Amino acid sequence: QVQLVESGGGLVQPGGSLRLSCAASGFVFSLATMSWVRQSPGKGLEWVSEITYNSARITYADSVKGRFTTSRDNAKNTLYLQMNSLEPEDTAVYYCVRKSTGTRGQGTQVTVSS
């Protein structure tokens, strides 16, 4: 069955960096457009970034543009989110999403706090 497993979250100080990973299985990852979304306490889901199957087009929310970088390794069936210059407002559970079906993983918690 389709599985998406996020990892790499944690507690980081403002200005710090984290790299999230999403391991995919159960579908043809190399043909899938993938997204990152996040959910902060008490808020709805916020779209963060999207990457096409061949990495030809990568888009970002204005709130993370210039700080976050999405990439993928189709040979490893893995999606990445490099997060730099983290801010307290980035605190959220981060999910990877298979765009065509809306399937997402269990999420990984990112907390930015001093």
Percentage beta strand: over 45%
Number of helices: 0
Enumerate the spans where pLDDT stays under 50 for 5 or more consecutive residues: none
Helix content: under 10%
Distance between the termini: 40 Å
Q: Which outline best applies?
A: globular
Radius of gyration: 13 Å
Coarse structural class: mainly beta
* String of helices and strands: EEEEEEEEEEE
Mean pLDDT, as a whole number? 97
Largest beta-sheet details: 7 strands, mixed
Number of strands: 11
Notes on the structure:
With 114 residues, the chain is mainly beta. It is built from no helices and eleven strands. It has strands at 3-7, 10-12, 18-25, 34-39, 45-51, 58-60, 68-73, 78-83, 92-98, 103-104, 108-112. Strands 2, 4, 5, 6, 9, 10 and 11 form a seven-stranded mixed beta sheet that branches. Strands 1-3-8-7 form a four-stranded antiparallel beta sheet, with no helix packed on it. The chain is globular and about 40 Å long.
Short note summarizing the structure:
It is built from no helices and 11 strands.
